[in-house]
Write a structure and sequence with these properties.
alpha/beta; Purple Acid Phosphatase, chain A, domain 2; 7-stranded mixed beta sheet
Length: about 220
């Protein structure tokens, strides 16, 4: 596969991964993202917080664009596709079902490794074939998780942490942004969702960080 524009290449075991500036990972014809958190804006609005709307539609559209641009046959969400389980009969549920129907017509299967925000798996018919997978689901040479593991036995992809990193420069200047965080044979993805924060991580010796900035993935020195 040719190098996607502005991406960084990473090899985990037998898998060659492309880390995309859209905070996603491409492996062969599969796209991986983590922590989309659909319905997060609506949840906070119901709690009385003034947060902008429209993020869910934008995030689903960004996924559609990525899947089409890279000719993907499969999307894997590494947990927290939802911020809270969707309310039956809600506009959000209708929009998601229409989006899933469109992916099915395009020949793209959608898999969700259940995360701590996703709740119990719903009946398959309620989500138009969204395939719920267990923590540790295997896909080819890759193990797919939501929460990072203390130890892994092979190439593993995870989310949950929303990793970010502050890059310090001369004269007390710095830049902070989301990162892909390689810890041995495990890669922790940055959060994909629009309305998500980050957790500043402290890499250990030998870890690798890939900073997303200005539409480019930058491998940081020292990894």
């Amino acid at each position: 596969m040719d190098k996607p524009a502005a991406a960084a290449r990473l090899t985990l075991g037998e898998a060659t991964l492309w880390l995309l500036p859209e905070k996603a990972v491409l492996w062969e014809r599969t796209l991986f993202v983590a922590d989309v958190h659909l319905e997060k804006a609506s949840f906070f609005q119901r709690q009385g917080f003034a947060v902008p709307t429209g993020g869910d539609g934008e995030d689903l559209q960004r996924l559609s664009v990525l899947l089409e641009a890279h000719g993907c046959e499969r999307l894997v969400v590494l947990g927290d596709f939802f911020h809270r389980p969707l309310r039956p009969g809600s506009t959000a549920q209708a929009d998601l079902e229409a989006w899933l129907d469109a992916r099915a017509r395009a020949g793209v299967s959608v898999h969700l490794v259940g995360g701590n925000h996703d709740g119990a798996a719903p009946p398959a018919e309620d989500h138009r074939g969204l395939r719920w997978e267990r923590e540790g689901w295997r896909l080819g040479p890759l193990t797919c998780r939501h929460e990072p593991a203390e130890t892994v036995e092979g190439p593993t992809l995870a989310g949950h942490l929303h990793p970010g990193y502050r890059l310090r420069a001369a004269r007390k200047s710095s830049f902070y942004g989301p990162v892909f965080w390689r810890r041995g044979q495990e890669l922790v993805l940055p959060a994909f969702g629009t309305l998500t924060g980050t957790l500043a991580v402290r890499p250990r010796r030998g870890d690798g960080l890939f900073l997303v900035a200005e539409g480019v993935v930058h491998p940081l020195p020292g990894g």
